[in-house]
């Protein structure tokens, strides 16, 4: 039985143990390291086994070239990644260097969680000037793009040939594109649909707005387009909904989490060009091709390069110098390009791009981005806070449109209400 | 499935039944039991189908899983997915993930058994000031969702420098923080006759003696149900390890499983499913070994002492 004296002893031992544990875990604060006594930085990324393997190689290379820095790598899946970052940010323990996604940049940047990379030495001379603003907010550079992707239309040449349909060359307007979807759907005879409803994809809407010289968001974070613009957009495919030109929403849901295009159920898909490897793997197709998106103005395709991911550093890192050197290495080093190829997207830095040999699938994506070079405009600024929610509700409301639950007018009103509420909340 | 399980026994002849009331009741009973079994078998098939799908998919090539593929079996039967799964992720072997999960799960079982039983003994058998208030507060923690305490807890462990160790994941188990198990054991102990303690006390036994020699052996069913649940919960826990562990070498299985699927890149569903099948085995074995105690534990807890 525990009496008072024993109790006190227990408490004393307990607190001593806790103090000892705390002492063990206290991190050593130091700015510079040497080969004998290297500084350690933590680097974290999301991705699968393949990316983990490539990143491990890149880290080993970095450590060999920089014996005074040790890099601790750590990875999780995409969804878990952001849960973990949110908790760490609240607890003040973000890793030194992180792989980052564009949609989270403004959120963490505005809350001063990320280091302003213009205050440290990172060489960005090899970057296209139109791309860098996508990592900048109000004059501060929070992220350096590692790689880029662009919007494109995918198709499977073998499937089109078997239906006797000519391959598109990518110079088309919306009417011609719709006709193409309808033709694939009609000849596909129930087994093959034309595509998914491209008006349900936020980024395609964004491209269309740019084709009409409208910015999606104003500089102060408000919506840059009107209800009429959105109505016009959603009406673009009004005649195709419910026909074989567009896969039905029921079928789309049944196929999830696989994409209809990856499941060989549609003849085309409008999305980012870095989905190539995943589509090839899922569909088992021999070859897939990429062509530019439709536009009613042949001189303005509205296309731009978007950073597929960025490198950022924690504002609280104790090793700014080491973090900056690691970021510079990851974005600029040609050997790193050779390790990752296009698995992060097409390398953003010219040094890295030129130092990499692209073959097969990789070459298709790089060639596509080269072919649209003359149409490229400035990358958009980092999306507004809560953009992820807006993008998701755009998809959800579009799917209600496809289910026939909402009219175009009703869908527009519903989305605007959600968007305006969200913008007000985050203002 | 339903058709094969439908009873083939003919409906008993009513005329004949009139002559022999006894046999009628037997026949009627058999029909009823036949229908009952048919219905339960059919329901079992429905319930087990996802598990069957998982096992079947583990042997299919990645391109034939999900999406437009609806058939259960594939002609391209192979063990490739298991080979990929056993290959490990990013240089960490799958065996490491298994060992980590096992360490965490067994740690959780041991910690919970030790701490919850002692705390339950105090609540059920010792009269001390503030007992009912403390008991009420403990029950109140059951109502607090885990997500509410995530960030404060993280800050505490972060300040103590305990992130990236197993301490944040296990310390709660050793301190009886799982109020559910304490509550379960308190209820169980309250049903044990107080006369046993009194007899022991008259013979000169103290609390330690009463607890170890009398309570613990009698509590076996409750201890076993606690072990099973805390093993399974810890084995399946995703959020805790996700937040507190930073080194891939320390990851348990649920974190590793997610790494096969990446919507932003390519996903290897086959390997993920194969690994899920492997990850299920220990839990299944644990359950099979102890399942008769679960039934025993549940039925004993229903008795009023």
Structural overview:
Chain A is an alpha+beta fold and 427 residues long. Chain A has helices at residues 4-25, 49-65, 78-91, 105-110, 157-163, 174-188, 202-211, 227-235, 249-255, 276-283, 320-332, 334-340, 350-354, 360-371, 387-403, 408-426; strands spanning 39-46, 69-76, 97-100, 136-137, 140-141, 144-149, 151-155, 268-272, 289-291, 306-313, 346-347. In chain A, helix 2 (49-65) links the parallel strand 1 and strand 2. The longest helix of chain A is centred in the first third of the chain and has 22 residues, at 4-25. Chain B is an all-alpha fold. Chain B has two domains: 2-82, no CATH class; 84-302, Orthogonal Bundle (MetI-like fold). Chain B is flat and about 75 Å long. Classes of the chains: A alpha+beta (427), B mainly alpha (305).
Q: Helix tally of chain A?
A: 16
Distance between the termini of chain B: 45 Å
Mean of all residue-level pLDDT scores of chain A:
88
Radius of gyration of chain A: 25 Å
Q: What is the fold-level CATH name, i.e. the topology of the largest domain in chain A?
A: D-Maltodextrin-Binding Protein, domain 2
Mean pLDDT figure of chain B: 84
What is the percent of helical residues of chain B? over 70%
Instruction: Determine the number of helices of chain B (DSSP H or I, runs of at least 4 residues).
Output: 15
Write the layout of secondary structure elements.
The complex is a heterodimer of chains A (427) and B (305).
Chain A: H1 4-25, E1 39-46, H2 49-65, E2 69-76, H3 78-91, E3 97-100, H4 105-110, E4 136-137, E5 140-141, E6 144-149, E7 151-155, H5 157-163, H6 174-188, H7 202-211, H8 227-235, H9 249-255, E8 268-272, H10 276-283, E9 289-291, E10 306-313, H11 320-332, H12 334-340, E11 346-347, H13 350-354, H14 360-371, H15 387-403, H16 408-426
Parallel strand pairs in A: 1-2, 1-3
Antiparallel strand pairs in A: 3-10, 4-5, 6-10, 6-11, 7-8, 7-9
Chain B: H1 2-5, H2 14-19, H3 21-57, H4 80-86, H5 94-125, H6 131-143, H7 146-159, H8 167-174, H9 179-190, H10 194-202, H11 207-218, H12 220-236, H13 239-244, H14 253-258, H15 269-302
